Amino acid sequence: MCCDLKRRFLLLYATQKGQAKAIAEEIWQQAGAHGLEADMHCISEMDKYNLETEKDPVVIVISTTGTGDPPDTARKFVRKIRDTTLPPDHFSHLQYGLLGLGDSEYTFFCNGGKTVDRRLQELGAQHFYDTGLADDCVGLELVVDPWIDGLWLALKEAFLLQKEKESMSSDVNAVSSALSAAPHIVHELSSEVQNLKLEDGVKSSGVLTQKLVDLNLVASTGDTEPSLVHSVPPVSQSALNIPALPPEYIEVQFQDVHGENPHLSSLISGGTAFEVPVTKAIQLTREDAIKTALLLELDIADTVFDYQPGDAFCVICPNNVNEVEELLHILGLSEKGDCLVCVKVKQGTKKKGATCPQHIPERGTLKFILTWCLEIRAVPKKAFLRALVECTSDAREKRRLQELCSRQGASDYTRFIREPNVCLLDLLHAFPSCKPSLNLLIEHLPKLQARSYSVSSSNLHQPGKLWFVFNIVEFPACPTRAVSRKGVCTGWLAELVAPLLHPSTNTLDARGGSPSTEKIFIFARPNNTFHLPADPSVPLMMVGPGTGISPFIGFLQHRQKLRKEHTDWEFGETWLFFGCRHQDRDYLFKQLRCFLENGTLTHLKVCFSRDSSTAEVAPPKYVQDVIRFYAKEVARILLKEGGYFYVCGDKKHMADGVSDAVVDIISMEMQVDRLEAMKILAMLREAKRYLQDVWS
Ligand code: FAD
Fold it and tell me: From the CA of 277, how far away is ligand 1's center (Å)?
């Protein structure tokens, strides 16, 4: 009976940065091994599929972008299904399973997927498989892998039911007899599924069930602690289910001519990049502060780049030059660094719809590609590990890599790769017999993304200048990383501006060191609502501990200028909540007092989380504690006076704490329960009066 089953399903992906596409390709790949055929399309290719007439199951993989929007490639699709004239049974013939991708660091987690899911349900479509919501914050694979594992059985059940449905509707008599035999059918269906399951286990060509033949492959018996390179039972003694080997699809040719590299502005897909000089650099923190914060000033006067206070922008950054050299050395390509690389799709590749990654230029040197195009620090995905197995000669190393990408080794993967943010170089050091080829790196490493920063100035206050503030990200050495590292972008910027760095004068005048000739490429980050209210008389509260203060400096500069220029205007009350560890080490802008003194700021509330206090009642440590202290004022401004509430900075440790405090304040002041208070906060968010600009 199973060979009669219809085995095609429609696979749609809506991707922004390529993750949803990569996952869809993984599904497409595995489908073959399960005897199924995935008809895969980008959701934007609406001429290639038709949901209105689709009879087969549909699988949708969709990511989320911006502040909870579906990816750009899904815009047209979403517009279409949102058509309010569609009847509620429009998609009643449709069976689908949806996998949403998102990042719980952001408020509207997986909202791209949720939006499509909700609308398909409203239009009568049925789930044949539960929706999966994968979180990039903890690792997409924690949900994606089991979701894909379960998909095959769900699809086969869907095919069986579909087949029964079809035969039932083909003949009214058959329907009645089928109905009378319902218990039997149900039994037959479930035994069919069982058979398929068994058959899968035996036949599956994609999932390699490998018996551990030689127990000597595991390290010495005295070694009881697992590590990146060493496993212990049960993993070390298990038969492993490892993913199918992803087909290679890229072919690389070196041209021994030393060529011209593309212009850096060609690295961004839309918009324009501007090359601007860094004119000042100031260290805002003292040497003994836990984190080092820098303020940089860019000269944008000779460009048409424009911004509003509250905007963020992107910096195009390179990988660390030493890491690139090291990688070239390990790949045995040190001599070829300056050669032009020609990247093509491999002839006869089994990868469906294989195309050259868009972030790899047609003509660029090897060094250029490794420096500007590939995120060499990315945590290797399991498919990459699987591919690396094939380039590893040592049997023990091979086995460990297999374990790390296997189902049995899932928690080792999380513990030794995902959580410590192990990168390709760390792996190549730990597994020295692994010698991947360049094409593998191009196939598996993601695009090196530009990093976003909030503007920390006002173009009204200082035309032609742009300030931004950042912490230098530090990753200390650990068992899986022999050397300490700095963040890709912040480490590079810190090095770049070192010659002009002025030790903390901590002044808002940003009088940095000597003029510099260093230039960086920046471009605008669209879609921002984190702006001052259009009406200056509206009161506002700003919460920005640490570098979260950054956009509020821009707000305050702007307001200060407006107050000077428009003495007849009415300006609303302004509150700023700032916090840091130590008053004398990392109070980034002590001159905030100037804003207080000239009336731009009505209230400045600061707290220091690590300073000891001799006061009888300990002062509040964190901004959320201070906010609770001013509950009545928060409620007045937010609920009675139609004011705005802005939160900027660290998501994990601060923004959630602040919104919890605000929910409690609403609940207390309005005498409603927490759930009701949360709804009110959601309404304030919707009305864009509670605004967040948060990052991890
Ligand atoms: P990366 O190398 O990208 O590392 C950053 C993160 O990657 C770490 O936090 C960690 O989670 C992970 N990671 C990578 N490698 C390792 C490793 N080996 N060990 C442990 N963890 C690792 N930042 C500011 O400082 N100021 C701002 O004003 C600001 N504004 C922003 C505005 C927006 C809209 C967004 C989205 C982000 C903003 N950020 C801001 C964050 C900023 O974009 C960068 O993420 C940050 O500066 C780090 O970049 P990086 O390249 O130096 O670090």
Answer: 22
